[in-house]
Amino acid sequence: MKSEVILKQPEVSHKVLRVSPELPSKLIELGATKFYRCFNCGNCTAICPLTEGKVSYPRKLIRYSLLGLEDRILSSAEPWLCYYCGECSDYCPRDAEPGSFMMALRRYLTTKYDWTGLSRLLYFSKKVEVIAIMILAAIVGLLIYFLHGPIVLDRVELETFAPIHIVDTAGLAVFFILATLLITNIYRMYRYVMRDDQGRRIKIPLKFLITDFIKTVPLHFFTQMKFRLCKVWNWINHLIIVYGYAAAFILFVPLLRFTQTNEPFLLVNPLSILGILSTIALIYGASVAIHGRVKKSQPMWRYSHSTDWMFILLLLVTVVTGILVGIFRLIGLPLATYITYSIHLMIVAPFLILEVPFAKWSHLAYRPFAIYFAGLKERFLASRGVMYV
Amino acid sequence: MKYPPNFLVIKVMCSGRVDPQFILEAFRRGADGVMVAGCHPGDCHYIEGNYKTLRRMTLLKRMLREFGIEEERFRLEWISASEAEKFVRVANEMYEKIKALGPLRIEEV
Amino acid sequence: MEQPRIGVYICHCGVNIAGTVNVREVVEYAKNLPNVVEAKDYVFMCSAPGQEIIREDIKKCQLNRVVVAACSPTMHEHTFRTVLAEAGLNPYLLEMANIREHCSWVHTDKVAATEKAKKLVEIAVAKASTLEPLEEIEFKVNENLLIVGGGVAGMTAALDSARRGFRVYLVEKKPILGGNTARLGRLAGTDMRGVDVAGSMIEYVKRNGMITTLTNTELVSVDGSVGNFKVTLLKKPTYVNEKCTKCGECVKVCPVEVPNEYEFGLTKRKAIYLPSPASYASTYVIDGENCTKCGECVKICPVNAINLEEESERIEIYVGAVIAACGYDPYEPSVGEYGYGLSNKVITLFQLNRLLDPEGPTNGELKIDGFVPRSIAFIMCVGSLNTTPNSYPYCSRMCCSSTLKDILLLKEKYPNIDVYVIYKDMRTYGRDEQLYLTACEKFVKFARFREAPKVSVTGESLEVTFFEETLGEEISIPVDLVVLAVGMKPPKDVEKIRTILKVGCGPEGFLKEAHLKLRPVEAVTDGVYLAGAVTGPKNVVESITSGSAAASKAVGLLCREKVRIEPTIASIREELCSGCGICVSVCPYGAIIIQIKENTRSAKVEPALCKGCGVCAASCPSGAAQQLKYKDIQLKAQILAATYKR
Fold first, then answer.
1. Residue ranges of A 27-46 with Cβ closer than 8 A to chain C
2. What CA–CA distance (Å, rounded) separates C504 from C519?
3. Is pLDDT above 50 for A10?
4. Measured between CB atoms, does A367 come within 8 Å of chain C?
5. DSSP string, C303-320
């Protein structure tokens, strides 16, 4: 049963908040398996290494969710400030898994920031995930089939088979589409988060919008420094993975003409070495994640949503096919190289297209922006003098 | 829980048994101070006895003032059986006050 | 009076006394006190050899008074009185001086403590010189038991006592037994309904020949005292006799309609009605207060079972003990409190319980105005925890468990109803914690308020607005139904019962037990016991348990052939009494009466009623009224001894 959102006059202090009774069950589907057990003791908030001053979670967010106060959830940047150290889950006297609740909230918010509705479908239906991957792989497969260059069989001529100008164009197109989608979603996030308790928009002067952006977003995007306050080893592992990806990105997007050549593949080459390091980093990251999720060794790996496995699987296939392309080039197996390369592209495309704007990878944008928005909000929101726990 | 040994105890079943003439007799015979202790109002073991005590002692205090006996020398206290610390505190206070006043020279009063 | 020959016995109590007080010095001092013929000390006076010393000396030295200086009388006064009795002395010729709790344990200066011990012994010796032999007064105990209140507590007490062979009079002011429990549906923690629990007890009560049940009967007065009460009852007429076949024709023609208290006001009944639940009543009854005596029912009754001329009957019975099991009343919110009375969509928890009961007014369907509500808000702590100005300060104990139990019942039947529980405190204690966990699993939403929520009724919908404590925000929830979880309050005739039985009330109005922990089912008045929710909120199990406990205590009294009372009671010398009546007015127990003998007025004490407080003695202007063992001369002797400077 829903009621209308009614914005009361500023003089009246009470608000009518929209109540969504389906919210708790949705969050359970998204991985907050036991959060209804919470009886509001606040131990989780007390133990969290990242809560201080007015920034406090997860207890309050659990309360909002249980009562179905969706507006409050949507206007919180806090879910993105949590790095899932899992201390809260370890200390919860009710075994309510607040850590996995926070993760479920992030999944939920991802489905809400996206305006296309595809994110929601991906998160709530395994079938849709699989079908989407297959469709995108098929499209890429068809494109390769119709657009590939001559197949040279006596030596490996990767550039001939996959002309750079085609791959570049396709790559740029994909990049722009993803960037546009992501930027529009970030704008939606901004609209949701930058609201006060009454639901009114908080107006930020342009000057501060720009200066705060410059001060926070690039720094957190590249270093994720808040993560180190959470669990240092997790932060380091994550950095390794991030820079693995970054290296791969640099090698295969701006530097494509130097890596995708007809030249023989030389191991002793700065680009190759970078490639190998990147591969090692990514294999390391994937293995740690798989091992952790199978053994459930840390709270953050105790519950794995289907989107988590999808991400790891796509990553693993991408990296393995990438390694194989390199090996086949090295030992000089042309057909094998071309086929593996095609498969690689057929996996990389859905990987990027689904994950970046619609699923798990969106956190690369939402997290740094959340820190940016949270900072703005704290500065410009009129203080109500209420201490939050 | 210690208090000065200057207090001698006479037991009655209820503070309502205490006739004001007993207190006057005690002062007459040379006591420097008299305390009447009973249950808290509302908690009287015999339902209402301590209300009677309260009325009588209020009147008695006025009389003692007329006689010239300092009001610190007579105390009416409500102390329940479980309030040992209160008794000790009251006893210590009363001792200090009466020590400061000195002996009651009843002949001169 | 004979010359007192006092023996003084000073106990070392190991080192408890002897460690601080120089016992030998005190013994020497005692020997020189007036009337003292013997003074001794011993390590543990209360031990067998210690007692033997006293016994021997009584014979050897022809002692006729004994002073024991030792620990507090509450410990061993009884022990030493027995010693005196065994040696042939009246046990009330003993005086004790407390030189432990009043001396060695509370003073550090050994010299001063010893001096004080000497004075305490001197005071005791002075009292002992004035002691007279006193006889305990004995009464024969009547073996019948009166139980006021026919709810589950009263019935449990009745069954327990009857099964032990005692005759029980079970008095109930309503036309049927069962009390509040008989109106309840499913109970928390079991599969049974309150109706069934009460029903099975009523069956046993009916079949037990030792229990005389008097329904529609009220208590008028109780005279006498422990072991011998004379009870006057008023049996009100139901105007319908056993010929009634329960055909129901009379109901159709009755013009008077009133709210049906058995359904907590959800439906109406006529002045002539079958008390619900229908299975208990053997006939229809007429509610004397609301009946207009129009006579329509008499005309229509096919078996002539109705007699509107029937009169009340006064009944007198004699019993030895009384158990008050008068139960509770549910808190009734006033009109406007949380919207109660302003909309039929605001109901109490008891009403909800009836609605969910398959034998209730809607046959177990939760329908208001024909519709099942889509969302329900339960407001807890109504009438309790000082939530509103009319509320009581205490927690009513059973409402949290009952509410959650009803919520789980309704979630079974209607899983999609959105339920909010708005509480000040959530106290599902003991095993009922499981109810809370299950409710959480079913997505019952819990919210905590600080100040009482406001319920606004706008047309068809209700909105509950409150400041949610755990979030620090004010929220407003639109719902289709509001259920007020009301607490328990003292029954409306508690003041009357209290005055008749001469028991006290606690600050909230419930009957007060003699001691919360040591004597929880006894009233301060001897012979009166308390069972069930009349002493404070209890759930069904707790009420039944306390009924058994009260029966056990009552039967313990009735088993004794005789009852004895301590002789330190008031005594009035007629020749000094002027009949002024001051003592009569100050006695808290009404134990003194004015009697007129040969044209003179004088006061007389009723020994069975006197509790020995001494207030009369202190009020008597002529000194005619005295308290035995605490007479004026005795206390003055003590004062003299205390202030005497040797």
1. 36-40
2. 14
3. no
4. no
5. T--B-TT---EEEEEEES
For residue B62, count CB atoms less than 10 angstroms from its CB and return exposed for 0-12, middle for 13-18, buried for 19 or more. exposed
CA angle (A369, A374, A375) in 5-degree steps: 100
Question: Is B8 close to C630, i.e. CB distance below 8 A?
Answer: no
A and B: touch, per 3+ CB pairs < 8 A? Answer: no
Q: In this complex, which of C420, C470, C476 lies closest to A14 when CB atoms are compared?
A: C476
The ranges assigned to domains in chain A are 23-113, 118-374
Query: B23 and C634 in contact (C-beta within 8 Å)?
Result: no
For the domain covering A23-113, report its CATH number.
Answer: 1.10.1060.10
Half-sphere exposure of A306 (CA within 13 A, CB side): 12
pLDDT tens digits along C62-98 = 999 999 999 999 889 999 999 999 999 999 999 999 9
pLDDT in tens, B41-89: 877 878 788 999 999 999 999 999 998 899 899 999 999 877 888 999 9
Can you tell me the mean pLDDT for C494-508? 88
Percent pLDDT > 70 in chain C is 99
Nearest Cβ partner of C418 from A21, A63, A69?
Answer: A21
């979630």: which residue's tokens? C411
Chain B contact for C618 (CB, 8 A cutoff): yes
Q: Which residues pair with C146 in a beta bridge?
A: C169, C322
Say yes or no: A7 contacts chain C, CB-CB below 8 A: no
Cα C107 to its chain centre, rounded Å, is 41
Those residues whose C-beta lies under 8 Å from the C-beta of residue A227, and which sit 6 or more positions away, are A83, A234, A235, A238
Q: CA C311 to CA A4: how far, in whole Å? A: 64
- B17 and C632 within 8 Å at the Cβ level: the answer is no
* ipTM of the complex as predicted: 0.95
B49 vs C524: CB contact, 8 Å cut-off? no
Q: Give residue B99's region: left, alpha or beta (phi > 0; psi -120 to 50).
A: alpha
Contact C107 B3 (CB under 8 A): yes
Q: Which tens digits make up the pLDDT trace of A36-85? A: 999 889 999 999 998 877 778 899 999 999 988 888 899 999 999 999 98
Report CB contact under 8 Å: B12, C614. yes
A-facing residues of C in 406-445 (CB < 8 A) are: 418, 420, 436-437, 440-441, 443, 445
Interior CA angle at C287 toward C283 and C291, to 5°? 120
**Phi and psi torsions of C492, nearest 5°:** -65, -20
With a cut of 50, say whether residue A385 has pLDDT above it.
Answer: no
Task: Check A24 against C443: CB less than 8 A apart.
Answer: yes
Q: Between chains, do C418 and A1 touch, taking CB under 8 Å as contact?
A: yes
Q: Which two tokens stand for residue A249?
A: 């990105």
SS3 C260: coil
Distance between CA atoms of residues B48 and C301, nearest Å: 56
The identity of residue C465, as a single letter, is T
Closest CA relative to residue C553, chosen from C534, C527, C515 = C527
Q: Are A27 and A65 in contact (CB under 8 A)?
A: yes
The C-alpha atoms of residue A104 and residue A90 are separated, in whole angstroms, by: 17
Chain B residues whose CB is inside 8 A of the C645 CB are 30
Kindly determine whether residue B8 and residue C116, on different chains, have CB atoms separated by under 8 Å: yes
The domains located in chain C, with CATH, are 6-136 (3.40.50), 145-234+313-328+500-557 (3.50.50.60), 237-311 (3.30.70.20), 329-489 (3.50.50.60), 569-627 (3.30.70.20)
Bond into A58 cis (ω within 30): yes
Q: How many CB atoms lie within 10 A of CB A255?
A: 13
pLDDT digits (tens, 9 = 90+) for A333-360: 888 888 999 999 999 999 999 999 999 9
